[in-house]
Amino acid sequence: MIRFDSDYIEGCIPEILEALQNTNEEQTIGYGVDPHCENARALIRKAVGRADADVHFLVGGTQANITVITSVLKHYQGAVCAVTGHINEHETGALEACGHKCLTIQSDNGTLTAQQVDQLIYDHYHGSAVEHTVQPGLVYISFPTELGTLYSRKQLEDLYAVCRKNNIPLFIDGARLGYALASDKNDMTMQDIANNCDMFYIGGTKVGALFGEAVVITNPAYKKDFRYNIKQRGGMLAKGRLLGIQFEQLFTDDRYMKVSRHCMDMAKKLADGFASRGYSFAFEAETNQLFPILPDKKAEELAKEFAFTPWGRVDENHQIFRFVTSFMTKPESVDRLIEML
Length: 341
Known about the structure:
Blueprint: E1 2-3, H1 14-22, H2 35-48, E2 54-58, H3 61-72, E3 77-82, H4 86-89, H5 94-97, E4 102-105, H6 114-125, E5 135-142, H7 153-165, E6 170-173, H8 177-182, H9 190-195, E7 199-203, E8 213-217, H10 226-232, H11 241-250, H12 255-276, E9 289-290, E10 293-295, H13 296-302, E11 306-307, E12 309-315, E13 318-324, H14 331-340
Parallel strand pairs: 1-11, 3-4, 3-5, 5-6, 6-7
Antiparallel strand pairs: 2-8, 7-8, 9-13, 10-13, 12-13
């Protein structure tokens, strides 16, 4: 079986395994304050162009999302997000379990516009029952979105301007950040991301690491006591150096972007393969998550050899399916799938 159902089905880049082996007998202090974590922080600060940024390493994406969001929100506040947002649809109600509501906005392609967010905030404060409804306390987006789509730099700048106008922080989920930055349809750098939000995270789990995410906080208002929140939310790893070592390797010799570009090369090749054979997409093919519309018979045929994910029915004979490339996708696997199309 050749798998195109996820971008974290393989282990990690070989440099990480080698580094973990070479440092296995080292003795270091725990909880993310060891020399490897400190070096990884320095490398990330350089990559994002913010010497003033706080960098924290957490074990996974859900822990990163919940830790960041709950550290910001007051108990009567919620997080504004697209209805397709990861915190709303794919985290088993983790945010709600912490006592905070997802304040969702409808979106055709997974993105939020500045106008939508501005209107939601305006409607809350100018409604007839202001204090009887959950107050918007943070705006959450992901880059790329859950549908594989991108924000342009202008869209992000406009969204952040609205957040600043309304004195509400913007948090970017970067679980697949490398793939967004490596897309030939992207016009942003990692520095642009860092300068147009209050906090974001750099995904490792889906972009070359065994596990782990790097939370980057640029707004001083949200830096104080953040490690207390990491510990309380179960995101602090006792053997913290395991995270530091991985991000050291990812941010040495431009490896983070190299593996991301490989993934995107495979995604573009696959997207071109679908398109050249007459298949259309439910959402624009901008990153490594592709959503072609396939006849049921063709999907049944492909499923004998490939793993991919049903995403929704279009009509009685066609469905949307998700195909995902990863940092280790082999060219011959893509060739075989295109051949089968």
